[in-house]
Amino acid sequence: MMLTCPLCTSTDTTHFHCDHRRDYQRCRCCALVFVPPAQRLDAAAERAVYDQHVNSPDDAGYRRFLSRLFDPLQRRLAPGARGLDFGAGPGPTLSVMFEEAGHPMAIYDPFYAPDASVLDRRYAFITATEVAEHLFEPGRELARLASLLEPGGWLGLMTKRVAGPEAFAGWHYILDPTHVCFFSEASLEWLAGHLDMRVEFPAADVALLQRR
């Protein structure tokens, strides 16, 4: 069966890996690895997984984890720059960290903060931490976020990156049934080129894309 890449929409995809639960395809155009649509969870099952997440601004370990994106992005922002945390989850924390640093924040999450009016505004920066791997249509969703950026604005992504097939087979990241898209550095470089943005990789699992 012909499968379409959810990032670049190419149909030039090939088998990459399979396990007892799912199959994984790789796009020859943008290098995204993805789960076929028929093997994704439905919305109720997806929400049930997210409801098990326990994240809080009071968790110092979680703040340290988020600081891998927060620190390099915050250094690139003007004082008072306004941001959006997309996919904030049940315990918004990154938005709190930026507000503490003087940056007004909006949050959006389709399950926990579904006020879509925040997606009609412009922002100096947008963050999506541990979000890209959950997106059913990452090409469309990430292009929409980029369109909300002011000129020179930043899109900060945090998602673990694919290595080779052998490492992928034993990778804990594929065990989460809500993870359906797996980016490599090549995938993120393709995305930046497609959106006419420049990309930096300042830390492990972190990509910063700047609107020209």
TrEMBL record:
<protein>
    <submittedName>
        <fullName>Class I SAM-dependent methyltransferase</fullName>
        <ecNumber>2.1.1.-</ecNumber>
    </submittedName>
</protein>
<feature type="domain" description="MOSC">
    <location>
        <begin position="143"/>
        <end position="212"/>
    </location>
</feature>
<dbReference type="Pfam" id="PF13489">
    <property type="entry name" value="Methyltransf_23"/>
</dbReference>
<dbReference type="InterPro" id="IPR005302">
    <property type="entry name" value="MoCF_Sase_C"/>
</dbReference>
<dbReference type="GO" id="GO:0032259">
    <property type="term" value="P:methylation"/>
</dbReference>
<dbReference type="InterPro" id="IPR029063">
    <property type="entry name" value="SAM-dependent_MTases_sf"/>
</dbReference>
<keyword id="KW-0808">Transferase</keyword>
<dbReference type="GO" id="GO:0008168">
    <property type="term" value="F:methyltransferase activity"/>
</dbReference>
<keyword id="KW-0489">Methyltransferase</keyword>
